[in-house]
Write a structure and sequence with these properties.
The chain has about 325 residues and is an all-alpha fold. The chain folds into 2 domains: about 90 residues; about 210 residues. About 75% of the residues lie in helices and about 0% in strands.
């Protein structure tokens, strides 16, 4: 927004037009008075008034751009003709450029907060790619590199497990942001059902971050302090832990299934990626979850591939304004 700081000068662009029009009207309606004042050519007064009208219209058009007469000099001077100083002197009530610059308060030239938010949401497509790749690599290492069968609970203290669990934490940490970026491209096509499916999947992903954090920091601690606790099922540890797992994992799985169905119905992304997202959850839940086995890893690997595919197609569908 720009605010005029002086009442002496009228900087509204149509004020020049009105002033020039009044001068031309006076010259046309009182030709004798113009002659008595020394003007021997009343038509010249009309021509001068018409010239002022044309310049007033040109100033109004220039002020229609961002800024006033002196903020877009190249485009405005081509429309009006002549340097800015001569144009200002030929128009009534127009101050010199230096005074105009002092009287206008310019708006900041940086991006608006809404633009930053849009770019952040658009970057969720990149987060989806990184999240999916990290999840795939993590469970490939869990299956092929982490020696669960050979070391038992001591495997939680190995460097391969720390790298695998760290990648898993990175993946789940980025997943809520990834869901936002994926949902943005299909928000209109997905409708109300897609919105609520996104909300459930988002909340489930946020809750799952806590469990993944425990895999990185809590499980190695328990393996070091009380190794006999780790070979058994984690549901035997505490009723509070059981309640937390029963809340986070079902919500996460149901949310991803609903989000996959909404994505399939919207048709914005390839449907094979939506099917892969839907299938990965039952595969993860109903196969053997023994650490280090193929059955434990395959469902999570399919989930990671689906998230990567959705993020990649979200990038391809991104408008140029978002990427710039």
């Amino acid at each position: 927004m720009r605010t005029s700081l002086s009442r002496q000068y009228s900087l509204h662009p149509f004020s020049h037009f009105r002033a020039a029009h009044r001068g031309a009207h006076r010259a046309a309606s009182h030709p004798r008075q113009e002659r008595s004042e020394g003007s021997t050519q009343p038509d010249g007064a009309l021509a001068g008034g018409s010239s002022l009208i044309r310049r007033g219209v040109a100033v109004a058009r220039c002020a229609g751009f961002r800024g006033g007469l002196y903020e877009r000099p190249a485009r405005c001077l081509r429309a009006i003709g002549g340097p800015a100083g001569s144009v200002a002197q030929s128009l009534p009530n127009v101050p010199p450029p230096a005074l105009v610059q002092q009287q206008w308060i310019k708006a900041p030239s940086g991006p608006l907060p809404s633009d930053r938010l849009s770019r952040f949401i658009g970057a969720g497509a990149w987060a989806a790619i990184v999240s999916g790749l990290a999840l795939v690599i993590s469970f490939l290492m869990e299956w092929l590199a982490v020696p669960h069968e050979r070391l038992g609970s001591e495997a939680f203290l190995t460097s391969s497990y720390l790298v695998s669990s760290g990648l898993r934490l990175l993946s789940i940490f980025l997943l809520p942001w990834a869901l936002i970026g994926i949902y943005k491209r299909q928000s209109r096509a997905a409708g109300t059902f897609g919105l609520w499916a996104f909300v459930v999947a988002f909340l489930g992903a946020v809750l799952t971050v806590g469990n993944t954090w425990a895999e990185v920091f809590v499980w190695p601690t328990l393996a070091q302090v009380d190794p006999d606790m780790m070979p058994g099922s984690v549901t035997d540890m505490s009723a509070y832990l059981v309640a937390g797992l029963n809340l986070s994992f079902p919500l996460f799985g149901i949310g991803l299934i609903l989000f996959g169905v909404a994505t399939f119905r919207a048709g914005v992304y390839p449907r094979w990626a939506s099917v892969l997202l839907i299938v990965s959850i039952p595969v993860t839940m109903f196969l053997d979850l023994t650490p280090g086995t193929f059955q434990e890893s395959i469902g999570q690997i399919l989930l990671g591939i689906a998230v990567v595919a959705l993020g990649w197609h979200a990038l391809r569908r991104a408008p140029s304004s978002t990427s710039s």
